Amino acid sequence: MPVYNHASLDSKLFFLKHHAEIESADTIIIGSSMALNNVNGVLLEDSSVIVDKVVNLSAWSMKCSYFLPIVKGIVRYGNVKRVIYPAQYFDFTPGQEAEGINSETAFGYLSRNPVDTFLYVLRSSKNLINLIDQFQDWHYFTDPKTYAYLVYDRTGGNQLDINQDTANPHRWGEIDSYTLAPFKKESLNCLQKLADMSQEHQFDLIFIVQPFRKTVVSANPELKNIMIEFDKQTKNILKFNNTYHINAHNLLNLDDSHFADKSHLNIKGANVKTRKLAEIIRNIDSP
Protein backbone atom coordinates (compact mmCIF):
# COMPACT_ATOMS: atom_id res chain seq x y z
CA MET A 1 0.00 0.00 0.00
CA PRO A 2 1.74 3.19 -1.19
CA VAL A 3 1.19 5.39 1.84
CA TYR A 4 4.46 7.28 1.88
CA ASN A 5 5.54 7.20 -1.79
CA HIS A 6 8.56 5.35 -0.45
CA ALA A 7 8.80 1.84 -1.86
CA SER A 8 11.02 0.43 0.88
CA LEU A 9 8.96 1.80 3.77
CA ASP A 10 5.61 0.93 2.20
CA SER A 11 6.69 -2.64 1.49
CA LYS A 12 8.20 -3.03 4.96
CA LEU A 13 5.01 -1.87 6.71
CA PHE A 14 3.03 -4.32 4.57
CA PHE A 15 5.44 -7.12 5.50
CA LEU A 16 5.29 -6.29 9.21
CA LYS A 17 1.50 -6.13 9.14
CA HIS A 18 0.94 -9.43 7.36
CA HIS A 19 4.03 -11.60 7.83
CA ALA A 20 5.81 -10.63 11.06
CA GLU A 21 4.94 -11.35 14.67
CA ILE A 22 6.14 -8.14 16.25
CA GLU A 23 4.38 -8.90 19.54
CA SER A 24 6.60 -11.93 20.18
CA ALA A 25 9.92 -10.50 18.97
CA ASP A 26 12.76 -10.64 21.50
CA THR A 27 15.23 -8.97 19.09
CA ILE A 28 14.40 -6.05 16.83
CA ILE A 29 16.68 -4.45 14.25
CA ILE A 30 16.20 -0.81 13.30
CA GLY A 31 17.87 1.55 10.88
CA SER A 32 18.29 2.45 7.25
CA SER A 33 19.71 0.17 4.56
CA MET A 34 22.68 -0.14 6.94
CA ALA A 35 20.40 -2.43 8.95
CA LEU A 36 18.10 -3.78 6.25
CA ASN A 37 20.87 -5.36 4.15
CA ASN A 38 23.69 -5.79 6.61
CA VAL A 39 22.39 -8.12 9.31
CA ASN A 40 21.19 -11.63 8.41
CA GLY A 41 18.31 -12.11 10.84
CA VAL A 42 17.73 -15.73 9.84
CA LEU A 43 21.39 -16.58 10.48
CA LEU A 44 21.22 -14.73 13.80
CA GLU A 45 18.23 -16.79 14.90
CA ASP A 46 19.75 -20.06 13.69
CA SER A 47 23.26 -19.49 15.08
CA SER A 48 22.30 -18.21 18.52
CA VAL A 49 20.84 -20.12 21.44
CA ILE A 50 19.90 -16.78 23.00
CA VAL A 51 18.13 -15.01 20.14
CA ASP A 52 14.71 -16.53 19.48
CA LYS A 53 12.60 -14.20 17.31
CA VAL A 54 14.12 -11.43 15.17
CA VAL A 55 12.08 -8.72 13.44
CA ASN A 56 13.87 -6.26 11.16
CA LEU A 57 11.99 -2.94 11.00
CA SER A 58 14.52 -1.21 8.75
CA ALA A 59 13.94 0.57 5.45
CA TRP A 60 16.02 2.68 3.09
CA SER A 61 16.99 6.11 4.35
CA MET A 62 15.07 5.84 7.60
CA LYS A 63 16.33 8.13 10.34
CA CYS A 64 16.43 7.32 14.05
CA SER A 65 13.54 9.69 14.81
CA TYR A 66 11.15 7.57 12.74
CA PHE A 67 11.76 4.46 14.81
CA LEU A 68 11.29 5.88 18.31
CA PRO A 69 7.47 5.58 18.53
CA ILE A 70 7.50 2.15 16.87
CA VAL A 71 10.20 0.79 19.20
CA LYS A 72 8.37 2.27 22.19
CA GLY A 73 5.17 0.54 21.10
CA ILE A 74 6.81 -2.85 20.53
CA VAL A 75 8.77 -2.91 23.80
CA ARG A 76 5.50 -2.41 25.67
CA TYR A 77 4.56 -5.95 24.66
CA GLY A 78 7.20 -6.99 27.19
CA ASN A 79 9.17 -9.47 25.07
CA VAL A 80 11.97 -7.32 23.61
CA LYS A 81 15.34 -8.13 25.14
CA ARG A 82 17.56 -6.25 22.70
CA VAL A 83 17.42 -3.59 20.00
CA ILE A 84 20.17 -3.69 17.36
CA TYR A 85 20.92 -0.46 15.52
CA PRO A 86 23.58 -0.63 12.76
CA ALA A 87 24.37 2.83 11.36
CA GLN A 88 26.97 5.16 9.92
CA TYR A 89 27.45 8.89 10.30
CA PHE A 90 25.37 9.69 7.19
CA ASP A 91 22.31 8.23 8.95
CA PHE A 92 22.53 11.33 11.15
CA THR A 93 23.00 13.92 8.42
CA PRO A 94 20.25 16.08 6.87
CA GLY A 95 18.47 14.07 4.23
CA GLN A 96 15.14 13.43 2.61
CA GLU A 97 12.82 11.14 4.49
CA ALA A 98 9.49 9.73 3.45
CA GLU A 99 7.15 12.66 3.00
CA GLY A 100 4.63 13.24 5.77
CA ILE A 101 5.73 10.19 7.71
CA ASN A 102 3.81 9.53 10.93
CA SER A 103 5.38 6.63 12.75
CA GLU A 104 2.80 6.70 15.56
CA THR A 105 0.01 6.12 13.04
CA ALA A 106 2.17 3.46 11.37
CA PHE A 107 2.53 1.61 14.68
CA GLY A 108 -1.22 1.90 15.26
CA TYR A 109 -1.71 0.26 11.87
CA LEU A 110 0.77 -2.51 12.73
CA SER A 111 -0.91 -3.11 16.09
CA ARG A 112 -4.31 -3.29 14.33
CA ASN A 113 -5.72 -0.17 15.93
CA PRO A 114 -8.95 0.32 13.90
CA VAL A 115 -8.72 4.12 13.76
CA ASP A 116 -5.08 4.14 12.65
CA THR A 117 -5.77 1.34 10.18
CA PHE A 118 -8.56 3.42 8.64
CA LEU A 119 -6.30 6.49 8.41
CA TYR A 120 -3.55 4.38 6.90
CA VAL A 121 -5.83 2.90 4.24
CA LEU A 122 -7.39 6.30 3.52
CA ARG A 123 -3.99 7.82 2.92
CA SER A 124 -2.90 4.94 0.72
CA SER A 125 -5.87 5.54 -1.58
CA LYS A 126 -4.39 8.93 -2.44
CA ASN A 127 -1.24 7.35 -3.81
CA LEU A 128 -2.56 4.82 -6.32
CA ILE A 129 -0.52 6.39 -9.13
CA ASN A 130 2.61 5.71 -7.11
CA LEU A 131 1.48 2.10 -6.68
CA ILE A 132 1.32 1.76 -10.46
CA ASP A 133 4.81 3.26 -10.78
CA GLN A 134 6.18 0.90 -8.13
CA PHE A 135 4.54 -2.10 -9.81
CA GLN A 136 6.16 -1.20 -13.14
CA ASP A 137 9.54 -1.21 -11.40
CA TRP A 138 8.92 -4.37 -9.41
CA HIS A 139 11.47 -6.40 -11.35
CA TYR A 140 14.08 -4.00 -9.98
CA PHE A 141 12.86 -4.48 -6.39
CA THR A 142 12.98 -8.30 -6.67
CA ASP A 143 16.55 -8.56 -7.94
CA PRO A 144 19.22 -9.08 -5.22
CA LYS A 145 21.81 -7.75 -7.65
CA THR A 146 20.30 -4.25 -7.40
CA TYR A 147 20.56 -1.77 -4.55
CA ALA A 148 16.75 -1.57 -4.39
CA TYR A 149 16.16 -5.20 -3.41
CA LEU A 150 12.94 -5.56 -1.38
CA VAL A 151 12.30 -9.30 -1.08
CA TYR A 152 12.45 -10.11 2.63
CA ASP A 153 13.43 -13.20 4.54
CA ARG A 154 11.25 -14.35 7.43
CA THR A 155 12.71 -11.70 9.73
CA GLY A 156 12.19 -8.75 7.37
CA GLY A 157 15.78 -8.36 6.22
CA ASN A 158 17.62 -9.17 3.01
CA GLN A 159 21.17 -9.26 1.66
CA LEU A 160 22.67 -7.89 -1.55
CA ASP A 161 24.23 -10.29 -4.07
CA ILE A 162 26.69 -7.69 -5.37
CA ASN A 163 30.48 -7.68 -5.45
CA GLN A 164 33.26 -5.53 -6.85
CA ASP A 165 32.74 -6.87 -10.38
CA THR A 166 29.00 -6.10 -10.43
CA ALA A 167 28.92 -2.99 -8.23
CA ASN A 168 27.91 0.42 -9.47
CA PRO A 169 31.27 2.23 -10.03
CA HIS A 170 30.05 5.46 -8.44
CA ARG A 171 28.74 3.68 -5.36
CA TRP A 172 31.84 1.53 -5.12
CA GLY A 173 34.43 4.21 -4.60
CA GLU A 174 33.54 7.77 -5.53
CA ILE A 175 33.34 10.35 -2.76
CA ASP A 176 30.83 13.15 -3.31
CA SER A 177 29.41 15.99 -1.24
CA TYR A 178 26.70 13.72 0.19
CA THR A 179 29.27 11.20 1.38
CA LEU A 180 31.27 13.94 3.08
CA ALA A 181 28.29 15.74 4.60
CA PRO A 182 29.16 15.96 8.31
CA PHE A 183 26.65 14.47 10.70
CA LYS A 184 24.75 16.83 12.94
CA LYS A 185 25.48 16.41 16.63
CA GLU A 186 21.93 17.48 17.44
CA SER A 187 20.72 14.54 15.35
CA LEU A 188 22.35 12.28 17.92
CA ASN A 189 19.73 13.43 20.43
CA CYS A 190 17.56 10.67 19.02
CA LEU A 191 20.19 8.08 19.90
CA GLN A 192 20.22 9.50 23.42
CA LYS A 193 16.43 9.10 23.61
CA LEU A 194 16.78 5.50 22.44
CA ALA A 195 19.40 4.88 25.14
CA ASP A 196 17.09 6.42 27.74
CA MET A 197 14.26 4.21 26.51
CA SER A 198 16.48 1.15 27.00
CA GLN A 199 16.78 2.12 30.66
CA GLU A 200 13.06 2.66 31.13
CA HIS A 201 12.04 -0.59 29.45
CA GLN A 202 15.09 -2.67 30.38
CA PHE A 203 16.33 -3.90 27.02
CA ASP A 204 19.87 -4.03 25.68
CA LEU A 205 20.71 -1.44 23.02
CA ILE A 206 23.47 -2.62 20.69
CA PHE A 207 24.68 0.18 18.43
CA ILE A 208 26.92 -0.94 15.57
CA VAL A 209 29.11 1.44 13.57
CA GLN A 210 28.85 0.07 10.07
CA PRO A 211 32.02 -1.07 8.18
CA PHE A 212 33.32 1.07 5.32
CA ARG A 213 35.68 0.03 2.54
CA LYS A 214 39.17 0.50 3.99
CA THR A 215 40.74 1.73 0.76
CA VAL A 216 38.12 4.49 0.46
CA VAL A 217 38.66 5.64 4.05
CA SER A 218 42.46 5.60 3.84
CA ALA A 219 42.40 7.64 0.63
CA ASN A 220 40.13 10.32 2.09
CA PRO A 221 41.41 12.02 5.28
CA GLU A 222 38.24 14.14 5.58
CA LEU A 223 36.06 11.02 5.53
CA LYS A 224 38.32 9.34 8.09
CA ASN A 225 38.04 12.33 10.43
CA ILE A 226 34.24 12.36 10.15
CA MET A 227 34.13 8.66 11.01
CA ILE A 228 36.45 9.11 14.00
CA GLU A 229 34.32 11.96 15.35
CA PHE A 230 31.11 9.97 14.83
CA ASP A 231 32.59 7.02 16.69
CA LYS A 232 33.61 9.30 19.56
CA GLN A 233 30.26 11.10 19.82
CA THR A 234 28.14 7.94 19.72
CA LYS A 235 30.38 6.18 22.21
CA ASN A 236 29.92 9.07 24.64
CA ILE A 237 26.14 8.58 24.51
CA LEU A 238 26.13 4.84 25.08
CA LYS A 239 27.43 4.68 28.64
CA PHE A 240 24.62 2.86 30.42
CA ASN A 241 25.28 -0.69 31.62
CA ASN A 242 22.84 -2.11 29.06
CA THR A 243 24.01 -0.04 26.06
CA TYR A 244 26.78 -1.34 23.84
CA HIS A 245 28.86 0.46 21.24
CA ILE A 246 30.43 -1.83 18.63
CA ASN A 247 32.70 -0.37 15.97
CA ALA A 248 32.36 -3.08 13.35
CA HIS A 249 34.58 -1.12 10.94
CA ASN A 250 37.55 -1.56 13.25
CA LEU A 251 36.52 -4.87 14.77
CA LEU A 252 35.95 -6.83 11.55
CA ASN A 253 38.58 -5.18 9.33
CA LEU A 254 36.84 -6.48 6.19
CA ASP A 255 38.40 -6.56 2.74
CA ASP A 256 36.65 -5.58 -0.48
CA SER A 257 35.20 -9.04 -1.09
CA HIS A 258 32.70 -8.36 1.71
CA PHE A 259 31.20 -5.21 0.18
CA ALA A 260 28.41 -4.36 -2.27
CA ASP A 261 29.58 -0.74 -2.43
CA LYS A 262 31.70 1.56 -0.29
CA SER A 263 29.44 1.25 2.76
CA HIS A 264 26.98 -1.62 2.21
CA LEU A 265 27.95 -5.22 2.86
CA ASN A 266 27.07 -8.02 0.47
CA ILE A 267 25.89 -11.51 1.49
CA LYS A 268 29.39 -12.59 2.51
CA GLY A 269 29.99 -9.45 4.57
CA ALA A 270 26.56 -9.52 6.22
CA ASN A 271 27.09 -13.12 7.30
CA VAL A 272 30.52 -12.38 8.80
CA LYS A 273 29.09 -9.43 10.69
CA THR A 274 26.06 -11.44 11.86
CA ARG A 275 28.19 -14.27 13.26
CA LYS A 276 30.26 -11.74 15.20
CA LEU A 277 27.02 -10.14 16.44
CA ALA A 278 25.78 -13.53 17.67
CA GLU A 279 29.05 -13.92 19.58
CA ILE A 280 28.69 -10.45 21.10
CA ILE A 281 25.12 -11.16 22.21
CA ARG A 282 26.24 -14.44 23.77
CA ASN A 283 28.94 -12.61 25.72
CA ILE A 284 26.50 -9.93 26.85
CA ASP A 285 24.04 -12.54 28.13
CA SER A 286 26.69 -14.69 29.82
CA PRO A 287 26.66 -14.48 33.63
Description:
The chain has about 290 residues and is α/β, with parallel strands linked by helices. The chain has a single domain, classed as Rossmann fold. Helix content is about 45%, strand content about 10%. Helix 3 crosses helix 14, helix 4 (about 65-75) runs parallel beside helix 10 and helix 5 (about 105-110) packs across helix 6. The longest helix is centred in the C-terminal third of the chain and has 19 residues, at about 265-285.
**What is the level 1 CATH name?**
Alpha Beta
Structural class: alpha/beta
User: How far is the N terminus from the C terminus?
Assistant: 45 Å
CATH superfamily: SGNH hydrolase
Essential attributes:
8% strand; 5 strands; Rossmann fold; alpha/beta; 287 residues; 14 helices; 5-stranded parallel β-sheet; single chain
Layout: helices, strands, pairs:
Blueprint: H1 7-19, E1 27-29, H2 33-36, H3 41-47, E2 54-56, H4 64-75, E3 82-87, H5 103-110, H6 114-124, H7 128-136, H8 138-141, H9 169-173, H10 189-201, E4 204-209, H11 214-218, H12 221-237, E5 243-247, H13 248-252, H14 267-285
Parallel strand pairs: 1-2, 1-3, 3-4, 4-5
Helix pairs in contact: 3-14, 4-5, 4-10, 5-6
Give a quick rundown of the structure.
By secondary structure, the chain is an alpha/beta fold. The protein has 14 helices and 5 strands.
